[in-house]
Design brief:
Layout (H helix, E strand, L loop, with lengths): L1 H23 L5 H15 L5 H5 L4 H24 L6 H18 L8 H11 L4 H19 L12 H16 L14 H23 L1 H6 L3 H24 L13 H21 L5 H19 L4 H23 L4 H4 L6 H14 L16 H4 L1 E2 L5 E10 L8 E9 L8 E6 L2 E10 L17 E6 L8 E7 L5 E8 L1
Helix pairs in contact: 1-2, 1-4, 2-12, 4-5, 4-6, 4-11, 5-7, 6-7, 6-11, 8-9, 8-11, 9-11, 9-12, 11-12, 12-13
């Protein structure tokens, strides 16, 4: 939970930094600031990046974006203040901020190393003091050398024409996939979806190149916000290229992975904000009319792409269910290795940590449900009428990797009283709780036969350890309330 909260805090801080830059560097206020801030919020919290928003491990994936932005902001603050002072601490503290943030980005993820050449290029373009340029060059070189110390590549990079074309297609799809509907299996996408994403990505890269050519004019006009946007745009493009070099052999479809959308959405955010700034600064447009047109265009883009959010939301819910089911396997002590892969690619590592987690009441063992095993059912819950719930037991299979005999049970459950799926299930024998389960799997129901059903995420998976073959089992839905109640949905003998 701490890591998940950290991800959202990082994104909120990143959004706040963007909002600050718009107001201080860009001079945006009123409706213009609200438009830019809303666009940034849409991109930073868009559900298409659902992997990074639902997997605590991805903290390191969202952190470089925040730190890269902070590093560029520090560089631009130094630029602004160094021209107003004699170069004392008032300006140097911003350069130190830029260096510190760049170091943090470097040691968060490999793409953080891209910040250093961008800082150096920016310092040269902004014509900063020689000592500042040398400081960035020396620190960046030392940091990159330390990062690469001991690094070995498993194979050399093939720079043949075919590979270069594949790399370009991968980068184009990396960014263009933001506007394309995807499926769970990114390795078997329809060719039309890949071509569509490549086309959109190529258009985006062409626009980014045109904006890059305008960088000198942004410096001459002393527009730090636009300079920041171009630097961030280059960071995103560089990240796409680095990813392509390491992943192109998996196929272009792999570029559609949802975790890459955190970078791709920042890319489109920078382009949109730069185009908005360009359009509003045109001498041939009235600002109020131009802003209204821009708002309408952005709103239409959001409305058109809104249906694309349903698929990532569903995949996020299913991933959450699978991990909750893995947690139930751990709590009940049933080593279902296939299910535990949802918690870690190497489930044996998870099992080795179980004694410590259980003793310290960490992770799943810190939840109240973990203390229910072996307790009398009626002492933990109010037993309610079976009319307040519905459900079935559909399978009870022996877990081959578990000993003594343990079962994996599946089915569906519905809380009729509150008209929603119950949060958990409990399995009891002779009125003693012997197993637990999670609810939320995709389980399509016949709406004509069940018109009261408002969602299909009603499937459950539960585990029972060391159960005798002749023992009767009762499956209870745990209904929300204070106190919680248990409702019988199925029995098995």
């Amino acid at each position: 939970m701490f890591l998940l909260v950290s991800i959202f805090v990082i994104q909120i801080l990143h959004l706040s930094l963007w909002g600050w830059s718009m107001r201080i560097f860009g001079g945006w206020s009123g409706a213009l600031w609200r438009t830019g801030f809303g666009l940034a919020a849409f991109c930073l919290f868009c559900p298409s990046q659902w992997e990074n928003l639902t997997w605590g491990f991805q903290t390191c994936f969202v952190l470089p974006g925040l730190l890269a932005t902070l590093s560029f902001v520090g560089l631009l603050l130094y630029w602004v203040h160094s021209g107003q002072s004699s170069g004392g601490w008032a300006s140097w503290k911003y350069l130190l901020l830029s260096v510190a943030a760049a170091l943090g980005a470097t040691y968060s993820l490999s793409n953080g190393n891209l910040v250093w050449p961008l800082l150096l290029a920016g310092a040269l373009l902004l014509r900063l003091r020689r000592v500042a340029v040398l400081s960035l060059a020396i620190t960046g070189a030392a940091s990159t050398a330390l990062y690469l110390n001991g690094y070995t590549r498993s194979s050399s990079i093939d720079l043949s024409l075919g590979v270069l074309v594949t790399l370009f297609k991968y980068v184009a799809a990396y960014f263009g996939s933001s506007f394309v509907q995807t499926t769970n299996d990114v390795f078997h996408l329809p060719p039309s979806s890949i071509r569509y994403a490549e086309l959109i990505g190529i258009i985006g890269l062409m626009v980014a190149f045109w904006l890059l050519l305008r960088m000198p004019s942004y410096v001459r006009s002393h527009s730090p916000f636009r300079v920041q946007l171009v630097l961030m745009l280059l960071f995103c493009v560089g990240t796409g290229v680095v990813t392509a070099v390491g992943r192109y052999f998996l196929g272009v479809g792999q570029a559609f992975a949802s975790r890459y959308q955190t970078v791709a959405l920042l890319f489109w955010c920078c382009i949109a904000l730069l185009l908005l700034a360009e359009y509003l600064s045109s001498p041939h447009t009235t600002q109020n009319v131009a802003l209204l047109r821009s708002q309408v265009i952005l709103l239409l883009i959001m409305l058109v792409t809104a249906p694309l959010s349903q698929s990532p939301l569903n995949r996020a819910r299913l991933r959450g269910f699978q991990r909750n089911a893995a947690a139930m396997a751990l709590i009940t002590g049933v080593p279902d290795m296939e299910q535990l892969r949802w918690a870690d690619y190497h489930p044996e590592n998870v099992l080795s940590l179980v004694p410590y987690l259980r003793q310290e009441r960490l992770s799943a063992f810190g939840e109240p449900i973990s203390s229910l095993l072996g307790k009398p059912l009626d002492s933990m819950f109010n037993l309610t009428s079976p009319n307040e719930c519905k459900g079935e037991l559909e399978s009870a299979t022996v877990v081959a990797s578990a000993w003594p005999r343990s079962l994996r049970i599946t089915g569906w459950a519905w809380d009729s009283k509150h008209r929603r799926p119950p949060p958990e299930i409990a399995i009891a024998t002779y009125s003693v709780i012997i197993g637990l389960g999670a609810v939320g799997d995709w389980h399509p129901m016949n709406k004509a036969a069940n018109p009261w059903m408002t969602t299909n995420f009603i499937g459950y998976t539960g585990y029972v350890q060391n159960v005798e073959q002749s023992s009767p089992m009762e499956i209870y839905a745990i209904l929300r309330g204070s106190p919680a109640s248990a409702c019988l949905i199925a029995t098995a003998k």
